[in-house]
C-alpha cells in the first residue's frame, strides 16, 4: 500500500494518529520488495526468492558450531530470517499477556510488533511521530537517553513536567505542562520510572488519565513500560497506565502506544526483544504496522530470530511464572531494606516503590558528589535534574544494602 493510502486509512480509522505523523512517518510505506515477494512464493515448489541458506530438507542448515549452542530451539526460528514484525507465535503470546492486564471496557489493542529492544521501539515511534519542531513532553527527571532519541535524533522540541513531589507523582505539574501543549505533540509516560523508581497510586493514575483525556489533542501518549509489573508496594496498580487510557481514549484526539519487552519482564537483558503495541485495532492498526515495518526494514531489517525463539520458548515454560516471582520477591526484599535503611539513617530520598531505582537529592553538585562516592567505593549515577543521584539496587545484593546506606549517610544524611 502506498504512503498516501496508509495515511488515508489512518485518517479514517484514527484521526489523531494521522494528524500526529511526522514528515518521515507520513512518507513511510512498505514496498513490495524481497520480503513481500518471498512470502507470496512460500507455497511454490521452488522458491528462489530470498537469500538465505536452506539444506536438502528445505529447513535451516546451521553450522554445527552454532547449532549445538541452542539445541532445544526450533532451527528455522533461530537461524533463518525472522519476519518483519516478529515471529507470529511470539506476537500472539505477548498479545495474550497484555489482554490479561486490560481494564474493563478497554479498546482492543494492535498486535504487538517486535523490536530490537525497547530503545529501538522508542526510536521507531519517534520516526513516526516526532520531527523537527514536534513538542515532546518528558518527565523530569527522566532516563537520559530520551533526549537523544526524541531530541538529538528526531529534532523534537523537548519540554518537561515535574514527575515527582515529596508526596508522590506531581499531578499538578503534569497538568500544567500538558495544558501548555498545542498539538500535535508527544507525551511520554514512564511508570515504573527510571530514574525515580516510582509507580503511581490508583488515584494518581486516574488523575493523570483525566488530564490527558481533557486535552483537545491531537496527542500521542507513549507509555514506556520497560519495568511493567515491577511494583513492590502491593497497594499500587501493577500494570501500565496504557490500560486505563485504552478504556477512555478518543481516537479523534489521543493515540496511545506502549513499548515493553523481555529485557526487564523476563530479565533477558542481552536478548534485545521489545514490543510496540497501540490502542489502534482494525485497519488503523494494520496501517500503523505497515509503517513500523517500513521503519524497521530500513534500520535493522528484522529482529534476531534466535532471541525471539528463546523468549517464545520461555513463555511456554510452565516454570517461568514461579521463577519470575522468585526474582520479584528478591527485588522487593532489597527495596524494603533500602527504604527502611535510608529512613533510619536520615538519608533523604524521593518516593520510590518500584523497578530498580531510588533517587536521592544531592545537596551539592551531583557530579562532584558522584566522584566523591567513587572514592568511597560506591558507584552511583548523577542526574542533572534536581540535582539527584540514582542508585540501582538491582545491582546490589541484599547484604550489600546496609553497608551502602552507611556510605550514603556520611555525605547525605540530614
Which terms would index this structure?
414 residues, 12 strands, three-stranded antiparallel β-sheet, 3 domains, alpha/beta, Aspartate Aminotransferase, domain 2, globular, single chain, 18 helices, seven-stranded mixed β-sheet, Aspartate Aminotransferase, domain 1
Question: What would you say this structure looks like, in words?
Answer:
The chain has a seven-stranded mixed beta sheet, with helices on both faces. Strands 10-12-11 form a three-stranded antiparallel beta sheet, covered by helices on one side. 43% of the residues lie in helices and 14% in strands. Helix 1 runs antiparallel to helix 14, helix 10 runs parallel beside helix 11 and helix 16 packs parallel to helix 18. With 414 residues, it is an alpha/beta fold.
Q: How many distinct helices? A: 18
| Helicity, as a percent range | 40-55%
User: How many β-strand runs?
Assistant: 12
The stretches of 5 or more residues where confidence is low (pLDDT under 50) are none
Structural class: alpha/beta
Shape summary: globular
CATH T-level fold name of the largest domain: Aspartate Aminotransferase, domain 2
* Relative strand content: 5-15%
SSE map:
Layout: H1 3-13, H2 15-20, H3 23-27, H4 34-40, H5 64-67, H6 75-79, H7 88-100, E1 113-115, H8 118-129, E2 135-140, H9 145-153, E3 157-162, E4 164-165, E5 168-169, H10 171-179, E6 185-190, H11 202-214, E7 219-224, H12 241-246, E8 254-261, H13 262-265, E9 274-278, H14 282-297, H15 305-315, H16 320-345, E10 357-361, H17 366-375, E11 381-383, E12 388-392, H18 401-412
Parallel strand pairs: 2-3, 2-6, 6-7, 7-8
Antiparallel strand pairs: 1-9, 4-5, 8-9, 10-12, 11-12
Helix pairs in contact: 1-14, 8-14, 10-11, 16-18
Amino acid at each position: 500500500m502506498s504512503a498516501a493510502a496508509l495515511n488515508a486509512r489512518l485518517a479514517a480509522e484514527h484521526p489523531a494518529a494521522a494528524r500526529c505523523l511526522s514528515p518521515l512517518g507520513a512518507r513511510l510505506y512498505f514496498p513490495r520488495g524481497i520480503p513481500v515477494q518471498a512470502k507470496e512464493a512460500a507455497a511454490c515448489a521452488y522458491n528462489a526468492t530470498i537469500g538465505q541458506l536452506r539444506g536438502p530438507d528445505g529447513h535451516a542448515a546451521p553450522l554445527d558450531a552454532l547449532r549445538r549452542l541452542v539445541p532445544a530451539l526450533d532451527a528455522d526460528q533461530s537461524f533463518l530470517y525472522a519476519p518483519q514484525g516478529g515471529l507470529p507465535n511470539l506476537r500472539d503470546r505477548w498479545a495474550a499477556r497484555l489482554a490479561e492486564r486490560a481494564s474493563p471496557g478497554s479498546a482492543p489493542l494492535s498486535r504487538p510488533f517486535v523490536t530490537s529492544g525497547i530503545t529501538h521501539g522508542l526510536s521507531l515511534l519517534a520516526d513516526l511521530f516526532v520531527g523537527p519542531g514536534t513538542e515532546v513532553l518528558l518527565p523530569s527527571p527522566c532516563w537520559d537517553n530520551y533526549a537523544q532519541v526524541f531530541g538529538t535524533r528526531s529534532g523534537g522540541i523537548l519540554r518537561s513536567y515535574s514527575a515527582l513531589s515529596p508526596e508522590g507523582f506531581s499531578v499538578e505539574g503534569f497538568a500544567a505542562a500538558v495544558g501548555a501543549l498545542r498539538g500535535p505533540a508527544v507525551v511520554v509516560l514512564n511508570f515504573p520510572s527510571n530514574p525515580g523508581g516510582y509507580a503511581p497510586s490508583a488515584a494518581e493514575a486516574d488523575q493523570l488519565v483525566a488530564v490527558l483525556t481533557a486535552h483537545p489533542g491531537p496527542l500521542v501518549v507513549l507509555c514506556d513500560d520497560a519495568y511493567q509489573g515491577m511494583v513492590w508496594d502491593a497497594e499500587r496498580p501493577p500494570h501500565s497506565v496504557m490500560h486505563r487510557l485504552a478504556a477512555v481514549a478518543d481516537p479523534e484526539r489521543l493515540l496511545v502506544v506502549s513499548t515493553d519487552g523481555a529485557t526487564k519482564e523476563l530479565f533477558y537483558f542481552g536478548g534485545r526483544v521489545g514490543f510496540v503495541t497501540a490502542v489502534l485495532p482494525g485497519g488503523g492498526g494494520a496501517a500503523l504496522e505497515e509503517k513500523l515495518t517500513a521503519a524497521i526494514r530500513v534500520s535493522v531489517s528484522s529482529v534476531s530470530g534466535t532471541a525471539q525463539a528463546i523468549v517464545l520458548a520461555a513463555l511456554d515454560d510452565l516454570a517461568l511464572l514461579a521463577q519470575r516471582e522468585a526474582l520479584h520477591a528478591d527485588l522487593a526484599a532489597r527495596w524494603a531494606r533500602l527504604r527502611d535503611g535510608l529512613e533510619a539513617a536520615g538519608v533523604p530520598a524521593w518516593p520510590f516503590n518500584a523497578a530498580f531505582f531510588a533517587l536521592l537529592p544531592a545537596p551539592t553538585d551531583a557530579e562532584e558528589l558522584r566522584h566523591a562516592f567513587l572514592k568511597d567505593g560506591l558507584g552511583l549515577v548523577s542526574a542533572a535534574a534536581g540535582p539527584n543521584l540514582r542508585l540501582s539496587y538491582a545491582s546490589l545484593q541484599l547484604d550489600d544494602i546496609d553497608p551502602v546506606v552507611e556510605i550514603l549517610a556520611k555525605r547525605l544524611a540530614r
